């Protein structure tokens, strides 16, 4: 038995692959294009593990995906591959359209052909699990209830619009062709191997480097944070017991304004690695120009996951964020390797002025 994971060298995908192989002997074919966000160092511990087969490639490459499917015959496909950074989608949406929409379409086409050729139990137990985001639901007002699975899609950024399109394609392949799909829509993740372009790892990295901690606008935008390993356990549970054709919202019931998150990070760093000059890290906070079209609030109602699949997150924000800061302090070599030329170029473009 084997599963195929796309985007398994990225932040969530690599955490998923590591957790999967820590708990199961079922092998993983890891298919990733290795864009700037893909990093095989995340998977260094699996270097000599025959259960992990890495293949570099694009989900939009129908021929290559078809060949892989026929060669490895996975019983399930988990689609993590995507362009994932909202700010990058604002600077240049093209890659988001290509991977998130066209790529998902081509992947679905290859999977449809493969699944169509399966017989009996192999066909009926096959699953295509599509990993998506809460951003497809748009932005909440302060007093709105959190997003449930029946909320209307109202994506506001090129990123969320491209993810919404991919979700619709996945849904259509179930309704039209009967492909056995599952879709998960998750809130903001944080934890190990998070690329330091995103708020939490960026703030930890900049704080330690003595650089400004950039807060967009007034810093009162709210995100609902989930420790990445809880996202992984939720996906495993959906794969195991989710009902075909259903959507599952995954979240940690941890709504926090950005400024509070940054203050928390600063306080933990003050405790674990105080600045040499005795000043608090929060003195590095700098308010910068807001993100265009910035969604004000996301929040996930994860009660369907709890009621129907018995899933709950293991970490609170307080335990997860402390583990995360400690992980970054213990893995400064990983961060140093990432802050390569391409990464520096991005930081210059986004924050340079
Ligand atoms: P990431 O950017 O860290 O990783 C994406 C991975 O996909 C990278 O390894 C990259 O090389 C690979 N990839 C990109 N284009 C590809 C292509 N055309 N073919 C094959 N591989 C390709 O992203 P992430 O944060 O790990 O997110 C993973 C998935 O989870 C995405 O679909 C994202 O939309 C979704 N998601 C993310 C979050 C979050 O907070 N990070 C929350 C909810 C949902
Ligand atoms: O909600 C799920 C989504 O969470 C995922 O689908 C995306 O792939 C993932 O990147 C994330 O999107 P966000 O835009 O919410 O994450 P980001 O870390 O980029 O920003 C979090 C918040 O912090 C957001 O309100 C913008 C703000 N921010 C971000 C950066 C990078 C700042 O204030 N300053 C910054 O420098």
Task: Write a concise keyword list for the protein shown above.
binds nicotinamide-adenine-dinucleotide; 3-stranded mixed beta sheet; alpha/beta; globular; 353 residues; 44% helix; Rossmann fold
Structural overview:
This protein has 353 residues and is α/β, with parallel strands linked by helices. The protein has a domain at 2-190 and 227-253 and 294-316: Rossmann fold, CATH 3.40.50. Helix content is 44%, strand content 16%. It has helices at residues 11-23, 62-72, 86-91, 94-116, 120-124, 158-177, 199-209, 228-241, 258-272, 303-309, 317-330, 332-338, 341-351; strands spanning 2-6, 27-32, 52-56, 76-79, 127-133, 181-186, 188-190, 213-216, 222-227, 247-250, 255-257, 285-288. Strands 3-2-1-4-5-6-10 form a seven-stranded parallel sheet, sandwiched between helices. It has a three-stranded mixed sheet with strand order 7-9-11. It has a two-stranded parallel ribbon with strand order 8-12. Helix 6 links the parallel strand 5 (127-133) and strand 6 (181-186). Helix 2 (62-72) runs parallel beside helix 4 (94-116) and helix 9 (258-272) packs across helix 11 (317-330). The chain is globular and about 65 Å long. The N and C termini lie far apart (52 Å).
What is the count of β-strands?
A: 12
Percent in strands: 15-25%
Largest sheet: 7 strands, parallel
The appropriate CATH architecture of the domain at 2-190 and 227-253 and 294-316 is 3-Layer(aba) Sandwich
What ions, cofactors and ligands are bound?
nicotinamide-adenine-dinucleotide, 2'deoxy-thymidine-5'-diphospho-alpha-D-glucose
Task: Compute the separation of the termini in Å.
Answer: 52 Å
* Widest β-sheet, arrangement of strands: 3-2-1-4-5-6-10
CATH domain class of the domain at 2-190 and 227-253 and 294-316: Alpha Beta
How would you describe the oligomerization state of the chains in this entry?
single chain
